[in-house]
Amino acid sequence: MPSVIADTIEILEEKSPTPLEEVLVDDLVIGIFFTGVKLSTGHAGCAFTPIGEVPEAVCCPTTAARMPQAGNLEGRPVSEILKYAIDPNVLKSAIGVATLNALSQLVIESEDERKYKVTKDKDGFDLLQIQPHETVSLIGAFGPYIRRLKIMGNPFFIIEKNPQTLRPDEMKYYRSDSEMATALKNSDDVIITGTAIVNHTIDPILSSITHGKRTAIIGPTASMIPDAFFERGVTVMAGVRILNPDLMIKILKQGGSAYHLLKECSEKIAIVKNTIP
Q: Would you tell me how many other CB atoms lie within 10 Å of the CB of residue 153?
């Protein structure tokens, strides 16, 4: 079965109101926290920059091999750049996913509004409608959600590659990658960071979630059309819409994070599965 991102690229190719060869990359930045892409159509998108997953990042010559086309990406057609989203090179993947998110906004705007009923300014956590006493799996250490679940009193697991990101009192919730399948089996709700899309762990994660569990993918990286994700059991896709692409580029150049993006140049958007006919 093709990956969820490969399927999403194919759907975008079919639905784009403009041939992808005619849509160009207008500007691009690989920031410390997020990678941003602005298209010639005026649409923009971003994706998590997985710097921590580039082992050569301490060595300039070998890091250069990661991005051999650096300095020459502006003006290239998105038909070429979208393929980066499935590249094993995670820096190229971030560029491809950011481009995919930008193009998704173009497609969503061009579709009949009944096709993609976009909910604005709602947190994906709330849209998941977690009930009291339901068990939740967080795939990724979502600090704000960890705090909310503690207050709510729900049992939960944190599946995180880097346990050093957790506080000492949170380690009791920690589960390793090898324990993920068991944690997911024992959960009612699953919340996945958009980072899983960039580092290509999203497909094995989705394949481990059994039918009937409510699942949300949340974060600026999860700002793409949801069709292929919904086919794989995802309930909520909650990302952002970039309102000011030039300001996004400027913020990311200066080390901006999701906080800065939401405060200065974007709005939260989400699409819930049952809102699509």
A: 9
pLDDT in single tens digits along all 277 residues of the chain: 789 999 999 999 999 999 999 999 999 999 999 999 999 999 999 999 988 766 655 455 454 455 556 667 888 999 999 999 999 999 999 999 999 999 999 999 988 767 888 999 999 999 999 999 999 999 998 889 999 999 999 999 999 988 888 999 999 999 999 999 999 999 999 999 999 999 999 999 999 998 789 999 999 999 999 999 999 999 999 999 999 999 999 999 999 999 999 999 999 999 999 754 4
Q: Residue 224 is encoded by which pair of tokens?
A: 């793409």
User: Is 88 exposed, middle or buried, given 0-12, 13-18 or 19+ CB atoms closer than 10 A?
Assistant: exposed
Tokens of 211: 């039918």
Please give the helix or strand (H or E) that residue 99 lies within, else none: helix 90-110
Break the chain down into helix, strand, coil percent, rounded to 5. Answer: 45, 20, 35
Structure-token pair, residue 97: 């996913």
- Count CB-CB contacts under 10 A for residue 17: 11
Q: How many CA atoms lie within 13 A of 204 on its CB side?
A: 9
Q: Crossing angle, helix 90-110 and helix 4-15, to 10 degrees?
A: 40
- Among candidates 272, 85, 105, which has minimal Cα distance to 197? 85
Q: If you ran DSSP here, which 8-state letter would residue 235 be given?
A: -
